[in-house]
Amino acid sequence: MKRKDFITWDEYFMGIALLSAKRSKDPNTQVGACIVNQHNKIVGIGYNGFPIGCSDDDLPWQRQSENINDTKYPYVVHAEANAILNSTKDLHGSRIYVALFPCNECTKLIIQSGITEILYLSDKYRETDIVKASKRMLEMAGVKMTQLDMGNKVVELDYSIID
Fold first, then answer.
1. Residue 77 half-sphere exposure, CB side, CA atoms within 13 Å?
2. What is the pLDDT of residues 105-144, one digit of tens each?
3. Is the pLDDT confidence value at 158 over 90?
4. Which of 66, 76, 104, 106 has CB atoms 3.0–4.6 Å from 133's, for a disulfide?
5. Within 10 Å of residue 48's Cβ, how many Cβ atoms?
6. Cα–Cα distance, 100 to 90 (Å, whole number)
7. Does 80 participate in catalysis according to the annotation?
8. What is the DSSP letter of 38?
């Protein structure tokens, strides 16, 4: 008889996104993204961080400063953008799993790449103009938005079980 406590596809792909977020060096916000095609094959993964060749030690991680160039915002590539840029296949008809609802810049990339569904956990910035613009564009483009409820489920990784 097969196991009954296996994780669902949504739990699996969101888990990959959350695990990817652990690669981020951002001290405040770690976001990961996982893009999956119509056959449940992963075709792109990313996390938020600085562009290749731009040192994590030489650019700022601050959220606030009098000069925007002394903050992380002009430099960080978001997880969704990295997942799209890291993709291995055509993304038309695929879906993206991300913990945090995408900003307007990532939304433009999501739409242009052909992704047809965003599955997310948190919409904590829903009242901001950026997320309102994102949702407006997604509705116009016919991209489905699905907020997942994972409840209080915990999935633990234990590297010590491998001999």
1. 19
2. 999 999 999 999 999 999 999 999 999 999 999 999 999 9
3. no
4. 104
5. 24
6. 24
7. yes
8. T
Helix (H, G, I), strand (E, B) or coil at 26: coil
* Strand 32-36 relative to strand 95-100, pairing: antiparallel
Q: What is the identity of the amino acid at 75? A: Y
**What's the confidence (pLDDT) of residue 163?**
65
Tell me how far apart the alpha carbons of residues 37 and 8 are, in angstroms, rounded to a whole number: 16
Residue 115 near residue 35 (C-beta atoms within 8 A): yes
DSSP code, position 52: T
pTM beyond 0.85: yes
Q: Is 151 left (phi over 0), alpha (psi -120 to 50) or beta?
A: left
Options 11, 80, 105, 117, the catalytic residue: 80
Strands 42-47 and 95-100: unpaired
Question: Phi and psi of 111, rounded to 5°?
Answer: -65, -50
Judged on CB neighbours under 10 Å (0-12, 13-18, 19+), 100 is buried
